[in-house]
Amino acid sequence: MNIPDIDLPRVVVIGAGFAGLKLARQINTKYHQLVLIDKNNFHTFQPLLYQVASAGLEPDSIAYPIRKTLRKKKNTYFRLASAESIDLDKKTLTTNIGVLAYDKLVIASGAGNNFFGNKTIESNAIPMKSLTEALDLRSKILENFEKALNTQDLQKRNELMNFVIVGAGPTGVELAGALAELRNKILPKDFPDLDLRQMKIHLIEAAPRVLAAMSEKSSEKAYKYLKKLDVHIYTETFVENYADNKVSTSVGKEFDCDTLVWAAGVAGQFPEGIDATKIGRGNRLIVDENLALTEDVFVLGDTALIQSEKYPEGLPMLGSVAMQQGAYLAKQFNRITKKKKRKPFVYTDKGTMATIGRNLAVVETGKFKFQGPFAWLVWMFVHLMLLVGFRNRVVVFVNWTWNYFRYNNGLRLIIRPYKKKKATN
Amino acid sequence: MNIPDIDLPRVVVIGAGFAGLKLARQINTKYHQLVLIDKNNFHTFQPLLYQVASAGLEPDSIAYPIRKTLRKKKNTYFRLASAESIDLDKKTLTTNIGVLAYDKLVIASGAGNNFFGNKTIESNAIPMKSLTEALDLRSKILENFEKALNTQDLQKRNELMNFVIVGAGPTGVELAGALAELRNKILPKDFPDLDLRQMKIHLIEAAPRVLAAMSEKSSEKAYKYLKKLDVHIYTETFVENYADNKVSTSVGKEFDCDTLVWAAGVAGQFPEGIDATKIGRGNRLIVDENLALTEDVFVLGDTALIQSEKYPEGLPMLGSVAMQQGAYLAKQFNRITKKKKRKPFVYTDKGTMATIGRNLAVVETGKFKFQGPFAWLVWMFVHLMLLVGFRNRVVVFVNWTWNYFRYNNGLRLIIRPYKKKKATN
Q1: CB of A5 less than 8 A from some CB of B
Q2: Interface ipTM
Q3: pTM, whole model, 2 decimals?
Q4: Which of A108, B9, B235, B259 shows a CA-CA span of 20 to 30 A to A117?
Q5: Nearest CA in chain A to B192
Q6: What domains are defined for chain B?
Q7: Catalytic residue numbers of A, as ranges
């Protein structure tokens, strides 16, 4: 790869998500040459992808160009590339655009979708882990209504107007709520000749409750809010298959639907070349308390698995964990340069939150657990502050304020029609 | 098609461009049932497509959802469909989603790209007539620089950094200017490790001057402005072929480039079923002074050819012609209902304008011809006022103001990588 060789240790970072970008911004490039690679030229604010999918925000509101973030850093190189394999002995990373030698390698490539080996579901479901996927989902939802208008076949119309969301973690819950608000307040104005009461939103969860990672109180409230918005919830239910527009489940219940959104499972993703013994639960890479996989290779964010007594399953796959780890590692690198001793990474739990709809959110932070309009305001404020870039904060703030008063979020443009992958069943 | 039969004459409009949308908004639906079809669910403000292509504006700024425009009109139906053929005897229109009977049919399907039969150019060039094409071009431009960074092969790098624009009408001139400003002011900050002086912009025109439809004075000024921005201009030059990244021309000059933008020719587009004798110059449909093709079929905008002494080649293919015709026909329809006599369509020439860059524009309106900063302000004001929707006007205004002071237009996101069509050569 076309990167100049200079007399500084080269730190190669794979992935410009929360972890990789934080590290890239905070590492001192007076002492390091920094090479950041990502398969997109932008950072994606994943927590708001569901608002892109539900046509509430435009993609440029939650994406931020990587080059712009790093503009003022010296000895810094961004390359649009996909990491393919690592050679731990030779200390090189192979990408789709060439081979790169490293002194330190940081794997911050995040998590991808996990279909638990079910190829049929994989080829028929729509996931929502990237901006392209969120836009595909948006196109699909809007196209479905255009098609529903034009069919007299009730079975077909039901399939088009039924939406099944698998997984009631924050992504599934937030998307279900956003779709319900779209149906209740917005689509009836766009489609006066369509009976939107026919649109059903089904949320299916394997665990006994929604938002299973939060407290029972928050789960209960979220359940109540979803019910209020008329979302159908099925807990302790596994989706067994999805083919020919039919969803079959472990409890015998079946659903007819043209759109199944997969928000049920994620798995760590990283280049080839790492020993199987280093791969743990959820396809994450087992690292020590310094986030080190080997002496020269570090792992951050969703890809990293640190097992501890408090978190036997590893730290939660959250943006805040990723950012803390990125900041930690930058500090370690900057410290190492000054010959100081490494300190272990300590996660500060800042809490979790989810929004279900207007005035309906649940927040848990430290000892405080609260729900309702104030939680919703806190959720909005925190998300605004976490967005990268002043422009994006302003755009999202204006959009949200406008929507609050006008009940009319977004433009609902079908710019690229959704193209279904080839089914393998 | 699933449209209720009611006791009102049914007007079917093909295309929600400037002409079709104007007609749809102004026709009195107390006396007509209106069915509007378009292959997109949004209206595109074509004059600003080049700003989407050059990463200055986001697509949602220049697109407006059709359903939102027609929300308050009764007896009005929008369908997302492509018109395929017309049966003039049976008075039916066949679309990809079914057959529709009409009482009056309005063809406002606009113009598409004209490659003058050259299939090789057609498969290798990027046109810029739709939002998808403009987004493809944007992705391609940005990807080219990412690739140029990563090659040591000078020939390859030149191909990636050379841009050839064919056609120096308003679209070609405006795009050339926007690309030049991108190179001069914006990209050097994004790509500090790339020598952007290597980026060449070539504008090729068959006529003896740029903006040939405008006065010689405007042409001269536009030429001077383009030169000032360092655009290379070749007049009286025909592009003969474009294959394997090589452009050959009628004057022997060749260009190596990975990106050729086709802004050289447009041709009317309309469904099958119309007698060849009715098809005139530029593949446009020959209509009478009432824009009528037959008693029940009308043609508007770019698709319509009205030959007159003043305009022997037909009216110019401009948004303002299309809008005047849409408004005229709505009025005629509304008048017919009231049993008044038809008046012929009279085109009021409101002038033409083009912007080349910051403070650099040419305007001709009536007897007034002016250029420079004031022309640029007029150009901006007129375009803002013509945009559909308060939101879009605000968004574009804020973008332009921001860019004026910050020299930093847009986010330059590659959301969907450009996929080259299969070459047929």
Answers
A1: no
A2: 0.89
A3: 0.92
A4: A108
A5: A71
A6: 10-113+267-337 (3.50.50.60), 119-264 (3.50.50.100)
A7: 174
